[in-house]
Amino acid sequence: MTTTALLLFCACSALCGNLALAQRSFSIDYQNNCFEKDGQPFQYISGSIHYSRIPRYYWQDRLMKMYMTGLNAIQVYVPWNFHEPVQGVHNFTGDRDLEHFLDLTNQTGLLVILRPGPYICAEWEMGGLPSWLLKKKNILLRSADTDYLQAVGAWFAVLLPKLKPWLYINGGNIITVQVENEYGSYFACDYNYMRHLRTLFRFFLGEDVVLFTTDGNTDKEMTCGTLQGLYATVDFGTDTNITEAFKRQRHFEPMGPLVNSEFYTGWLDHWGDKHAAVDAKAVSKVLGEMLTLGANVNMYMFEGGTNFGYWNGADHDKRFRSVVTSYDYDAPLSEAGDPTEKLLAIRDIIAQFRDIPAGPVPPATPKFAYGFVTLKKVGNVSEFLKIFSPSGPVKSKDPLTFEEMKQPYGYMLYRTTLPRNLSEPTPLISPLNGVHDRAYVSVNGVYQGFLERDTTLVINVTGNHGDTMDLLLENMGRVNFGSKINDYKGLLSSLNLGKDALTDWKIYSLNIDGAIAEGWPHLQSSKSGPTYRREPSVGPAFYTGTLQPNGLNWDTFLKLHEWTKGQVWINGVNLGRYWPARGPQQTLFVPGPLLSTTLPNTITVLELEQAPPQLRVLFMDRPHLNITANKL
Ligand SMILES: *[C@@H]1O[C@H](CO)[C@@H](O)[C@H](O)[C@H]1NC(C)=O
Ligand SMILES: *[C@@H]1O[C@H](CO)[C@@H](O)[C@H](O)[C@H]1NC(C)=O
Ligand SMILES: *[C@@H]1O[C@H](CO)[C@@H](O)[C@H](O)[C@H]1NC(C)=O
Ligand SMILES: *[C@@H]1O[C@H](CO)[C@@H](O)[C@H](O)[C@H]1NC(C)=O
Ligand SMILES: *[C@@H]1O[C@H](CO)[C@@H](O)[C@H](O)[C@H]1NC(C)=O
Ligand SMILES: *[C@@H]1O[C@H](CO)[C@@H](O)[C@H](O)[C@H]1NC(C)=O
Ligand SMILES: *[C@@H]1O[C@H](CO)[C@@H](O)[C@H](O)[C@H]1NC(C)=O
């Protein structure tokens, strides 16, 4: 059945073969509606994996599992902001070593479908765009805006020459390269921009590589996202009629291979939403139907991974919704890289179409429940301003944004004084909804509550004339999709206290990650450092504890049961945000190699709202991703 179907849609022409075999080639065979690799018809069965969401030491493990499932290719995004954190300063080392990742895919025997953006969406911070682009007010991102194009050109002049030797036709394993990402769903619909990108890709990668676009499966998206010379592909999930979807691709590409560039195996979660899941049977069934048509399929995601640190993106439709730390995605390989039933179901389907490598899929990595660790309070954020903000505050009549302060991610402190006595609780108002994204408010050290973008624009505060009011501002990840990707962070506009506008701010950049990476608070505790306290408190504060080594460094899952919301580090590495009070994610993935088998492992928690009466955290041997609080 399968061979016949393949021949119908993707038959090798009588002429293909011998001549081309001598030379490496990869192209589109328009006559026979398929890709052609080394002169032979070629169909890919691929899976998405993001190296930026997996620690380097696990790349090979995940790739091997994908190979053993029967995939012949992987698809990967290159997040620009991961590699150019500061304009003109590039990082391709350690967990950002793209070429090492490509080398591992090549060694594993997998081809690569590369998606270098410059915009990638991916539920990644700002869709992969660096936030320093926002220093130009009103920059029109993803368009022919000259400053945007200038930055893209400089980035591609660094990135694309590195990739050129990795093209299949040049001896590497990259078979195709995507231009932009679902551009048709962006309002700008700027053909000059797409033409400019096409020119850049051709200039740096040559005339022979297959360039393509990917768009949502509607006429409007296909119209704005496609361009002559870039092969048009579609993306869709299990709820779509595949005949209809490929008919639409055919409308834009009358001949050539059928391609679903993102076949959704699962879906993402936002804080406060129900946990997303896609049925394994539906995924394997529709996969089989597409392969029967001879289509090329990339499964998005095959291995999702984790939004460590501050790398999660956000959506803004009716309101701002931040993506959770886990990018498990209900994918065939779990967040921790474990094969699931979905993977086995997919493998059974693939086995009907191509020879899959002999032998079992490598097993799950071992997990360990290290148990409870008791924490102590170190102190609240404002006590450590000298450590986090050694150069002190910037003074400004009106508040400055994260971008103006040149702090891309994390937290900043905004301080002012109360202009008068508040004889009764007085509303602190965010009149222009300018708190991006949450502000934790204290007056003279007494926590008052929080303001939240789109949902909580007023709280009552109390205090006296001259009291210090501190707002710890949390950047919860920039919008990665849609028209609101110019997502400035911090206090974007002044706040009112009753009828008075608050002015004369001291704004502190906070390098919390830098301090923790250098050993704070543990290294200081023996010297003149903080004195630890056992009591929890309300308001933003640090807590710390030690997981004693037990000779193992197996993967584990950290549960902050009854904690409210915050950020957690282990041995100086930022594991990401936790927010069990909202859910659905309840545990954070802790990759085993982060743990020491011989030295005490330090845990540092920044709790933003309220710590539980019992200051402890729990290391479990399984994840918990699906409990959403009813309250909001
Ligand atoms: C580059 O990125 C790696 C991996 O995240 C990190 O360990 C390293 O410190 C970075 N290098 C610089 C110079 O920032
Ligand atoms: C990719 O792997 C093949 C086979 O192992 C090897 O011949 C080739 O040199 C590798 N390509 C690169 C760019 O490393
Ligand atoms: C998909 O659409 C086609 C018409 O384009 C229709 O014939 C077919 O029944 C539909 N399939 C399903 C499963 O609805
Ligand atoms: C404000 O309150 C303080 C302390 O309660 C008091 O000493 C002061 O006189 C008050 N100022 C005004 C202007 O009411
Ligand atoms: C603020 O305090 C006033 C006066 O005590 C009260 O009427 C109002 O409901 C409070 N508002 C909020 C948002 O708590
Ligand atoms: C922070 O700690 C200082 C010193 O212990 C204390 O005076 C202040 O009230 C605390 N602030 C908060 C918000 O807990
Ligand atoms: C949550 O996920 C676990 C497996 O991780 C499953 O056993 C449980 O039934 C799920 N609960 C809900 C409410 O979906």
UniProtKB/TrEMBL annotation:
Q: List the gene name.
A: glb1l
Q: Which GO terms describe its biological process?
A: carbohydrate metabolic process
Q: What is this protein called?
A: Beta-galactosidase-like
Taxonomic lineage per UniProt?
Eukaryota, Metazoa, Chordata, Craniata, Vertebrata
Entry annotated with the keyword RNA-binding:
no
The UniProt entry's coiled-coil ranges are none
Write the record's keywords in alphabetical order, separated by commas: Glycoprotein, Glycosidase, Hydrolase, Signal
Q: Which family does it belong to?
A: Belongs to the glycosyl hydrolase 35 family.
Glycoside hydrolase 35 catalytic domain location is 36-352
In the record, which residues are listed under signal peptide?
A: 1-22
Entry-linked PANTHER family: BETA-GALACTOSIDASE RELATED
